[in-house]
Amino acid sequence: MATTSDTPQTTSSENTTQQAMTEAPEDRSSSQATQGRPESTIIIHSTRAGENLPEGQSTETCQIHDTPPPKEISSPLPWKESVGLYGCSGILGGSALVLGVIGFLSFLWFGKGTVPEAAKASWLWRRIALADWMTRTITICALVLRLVISIQAGICTSMIASLVLENHHALIRKSQAAYVSVLRGVNDGPRKLIQILLSSRTLSVLASFEIWLMMLLVMLTLVLQFSSTILLSDLRDFVVAGDASITTVANLLPGHSMEELNSGFGVMLQTSPIYGIFGESESSVDSSPSPSGFSDTGLVQRGYIPVPDKDARSSVRQYRGNTLVSSSRVSCLAPKMEASFSNYTSDAGAILGRITGTLHYGEALTEARPGTDTSPLCRGGECESTPFECLTGSSLYGSTQSVFCFIGNVGGTLKSLHDLNWRPDDPPWAANSSIYLVLSTNMTQDDWYSLSESHEVPMSQTDDEWITFQPVEGRSVDISLCFTRFVVNRRFVDLSRNGPTLEPVMTWGKLSYEHSSSSVLNMFDTDTPRTPSERGLLKMDILSGSDGWIPANNTTFDTDSPGTRSSGYNTSAILMSLVITPLTDLFTPNMTLIACIQCVAYGSVMHPELVYIFEDTLRSTRRSANAFQNLIGALASASYDNLLSSLSVPEEVKMSSTNTVRAPGSCITDSCSGFISVATLLGVHMVTVWAIAVMYAVRVRYSRVSNIWHAVSQLFGVELHDAMTQANNASDAVVDKQKFSKGKDSFVRLGQLEDDSAIGIVASRGTDRKPVSGAKTDDAGRK
Q1: 106 and 48 in one domain?
Q2: Where does this protein have compositionally biased stretches of type Polar residues (predicted)?
Q3: pLDDT tens, 102-137?
Q4: Closest Cα partner for 186 from 608, 709, 694?
Q5: Which residues constitute the domain of residue 304?
Q6: pTM to 2 decimal places
């Protein structure tokens, strides 16, 4: 009979256990030595008394981990490892590229400069605009921005996934851990991550700074996909001055015989004027009368553009080549005369005023302009005088109305246009210059009729360049003496302007006296020394030489053959005839030209627009010199416009014109809200990206951007062991239903596993860790 004892018998399994207790720690420590974390594991197998079990098998197994808590990694991974080359390139390189694109877009928006029509813009801006590449360039820039933003959004999604996965707060559930982990290595943008976080069904997500950054990133990425449309909304039709290029224009008349130039051109006075744009030399002359009453406009030189089409002519910004240049100068002063005035009844029954006598224009010039060389005016020691007879107009309503009377030419020797031989630098009182008397009065027909006999014109009362007297009480007559000179030559010129030009149009009513001549007077007015640019004209420089591509072809008086003139001379002479002939009635002395609207007068009639130019200038300035200069300028411009249709001889010139292109509008005059919006959104995007990058660099310990193996391997651990096993050959829906339903879907995070030093999915803060099935707790409270 066997003897029993209360002392527990040590079985072979117990020996095995003791051996494990003594050997296992050494083996584990050796395996952990490489990781620096000592750990001991005790495995106990026990049998209960009285139970017969197969050898080596126990009824209960308990794993006891007697392991110190793993030491957390306190420092973040270096950027080279955690972000990698792709991430650094996307964040750093992408940011630099975004800044570069913003800078280039700023160049497109503001590179036109402050000079009108981008005349001084940089070479690159002008090339893009003139080639009509502005829309395509902006579209390409927007495409680059969308590409960079998409790349950065993907990288930031990986970073945010890492941040929320390593967050100690309860943000990620077990069912989402795999997807979030994979998002660190491969993702299609921030949308899925936001969906996962919002589906975690916890308010902790809203308290997380990462979710708000991610939502902001999603919004910015979405809106910036439309950056091209937003930017293109700023484009406007913009006028850009083109580059100068050699072109061919019809610039000359063919040579004709001398007899063909003798036809009259009085019809020009009745033609509706077109005030073609021209270039003008700068002048500082002020036409204000001197103390002695001498008023002088100075030499006014204008170069005309041989382009018939009005719109094409207005678009010219540079013209370099040969063209017709007019030189005009007008001097006016108070006359010296022995004359009388009386009434006169015309053949039509109109009652006018008449002044007859002898005009001493040489003496008047000597007194008004002391020191003037009057030798060309004097013969036999006495200065020139000439008889005259002029008719004045009668005012309809008592307002001052004017006419001017052609007295003749200085010296009285001019017989035809070809005897002129004028030169631009000659003064207006030189030989063969035109002499006029301007007569202004508010006398009505009744006032003139009241004069029963003739009266002497008194010379005692002067007012600047006028003598003035009162034929009847309350009514006056003002007379001014004017010398005019108009010359046309061919010159090699450079016409240029930075900014728009506009050919003015006068408005006036045919059945009323209402009109507006301000725009036309602004073009021609010489009242004050204003620059051509201030009056919307091109600046003209008369060049002495020529460019290599074209010779200067100035007017010469050499005959090409007997009885003929050169094309240059012929063209110049025609334009001179178109202006001088109607103003002198083919040099007919004592011819009166009517320069009033509300009057009764007898003489040559001018087009109402020419009348308004003369009348309005005289009324506003009281300077007959300015009135004549503006009239001559308007008549010359209109005459050249009519002459253009007859020019047929081609000539090469260098010319640049404006082009209408699509370009960003000025932020001052137009809206640039599109650029401001995109620039602001890009600025916020950059701040968001770098905020995410800084958070990632400071807080992330275990993650690496765009690395897939570590993202997959870190899914292993106690929390996801069953799911990983089940998912080997099952769909996501099956795994979710079997492993993460009915309260099993607890919160997890990424951390160091407790059983070794590996990185894996562990329970997040606030969740209970459940022991392995069948595990016991020892007396010390350890599992």
Answers
A1: no
A2: 1-21, 55-64
A3: 999 999 998 888 888 888 888 899 899 988 899 999
A4: 709
A5: 276-658
A6: 0.70
